[in-house]
C-alpha cells in the first residue's frame, strides 16, 4: 500500500520522494516509462543531471540550483529503488554507507585526531585513507577503481593523478608543453598518411597530454572547457545579433565577415 498522505504532503521531505519513487515503479499501478527503465538506461540521465548542477553553479543561477540538485537527488532515489527491487540494497543503506564513509574519512572531525591540520595535510590523509579502502577491496593496482564511466577528460586527469602518486609523472610543466608540441607536430605531419583510426589514436594522445597540462597547472579541464564553450556560445550569438542588424543570417554571410564580427565581439567584451 502506498502512502498517499505522504505523497501529497508538501513538507514530506526525503521520505516523500522515496515513496513517490516506489509508487512510480509499482508493477500494477506505476508509470509505464519508469517501469521500463534499468540501471543502464537511467545512467545517462544521471550524468546529464550532474552536469546541469555544474552548469547552474557556473552561471551562479542560484534559483535554478535547488531544482537541479533535486533532479540529481532523484537519480539516486531511482537507482536505489531499482536496487531494492532486486534485493541489492535500499536507499537508507546508500545513505548509511555514505555516512560511514564520511565519518571514517574525517577522523579529525569525528574521531580522536586533532583538526589542527592544513587543508593540504587533510588532503594527504584523505588519499591515504582511500588507499587503505582500495586495498581492503583487493584493488591492488595503482589505477584500480578509477571509474570507466567518467567523462574521458576527467578520467584522464584521475588516471594521471594516480600514476603521479607512484612517481610516474613529468617533474615540470615545461616537459608537458614539449610533449604537447611533439604530439601536435606528429599529427600535423602524418595526418595525410594515417587511417582514420590512427588519426583518432593520435588525437587521443594529444588530448591526454593536454589534460596532463591542466593537472600541472592546477586547472580543472572540464571547468575550463565549459567556460570556453560558454564564451564561444556568447560570442557567436553576438555575431548572429550583429548580422541580424544588417538584415542577414549566418547562411547569408561568409567566413571573412563573421571573423571580423567575432573580433568585434571580443573587443566589446574586453571593454566591459
Show the helix and strand layout.
Elements: H1 4-7, H2 13-24, H3 32-36, H4 39-58, H5 62-85, H6 91-105, H7 107-110, H8 119-136, H9 152-165, H10 173-190, H11 196-216, H12 221-245, H13 255-271
Pfam families: MazG, PRA-PH
Catalytic activity: ATP + H2O = AMP + diphosphate + H(+)
GO molecular function: ATP diphosphatase activity
Describe the overall structure.
The structure is a single chain. The protein folds into three domains: 4-95, MazG-like (Helix Hairpins, Orthogonal Bundle); 141-219, Helix Hairpins; 223-271, no CATH class. 72% of the residues lie in helices and 0% in strands. The protein has 13 helices and no strands. Helix 2 (13-24) crosses helix 5 (62-85) and helix 4 (39-58) runs antiparallel to helix 5 (62-85). The longest helix is centred in the last third of the chain and has 25 residues, at 221-245. The termini are far apart. This is Nucleoside triphosphate pyrophosphohydrolase. Belongs to the nucleoside triphosphate pyrophosphohydrolase family.
Order of helices and strands: HHHHHHHHHHHHH
Low-confidence stretches: none
Number of domains: 3
- Major beta sheet, specifics? none
Instruction: Indicate the percent of residues in helices.
Output: over 70%
> Helical segment tally?
13
CATH topology of the largest domain: Helix Hairpins
Tally of DSSP β-strands? 0
Query: How far is the N terminus from the C terminus?
Result: 60 Å
How much of the sequence lies in strands comes to under 5%
Global structural class? mainly alpha
The CATH class of the largest domain: Mainly Alpha
| Fourth-tier CATH superfamily name of the largest domain | MazG-like
- State Rg: 25 Å
Instruction: Round the mean pLDDT to the nearest integer and report it.
Output: 91
Shape: globular
What CATH architecture of the largest domain would you give?
A: Orthogonal Bundle
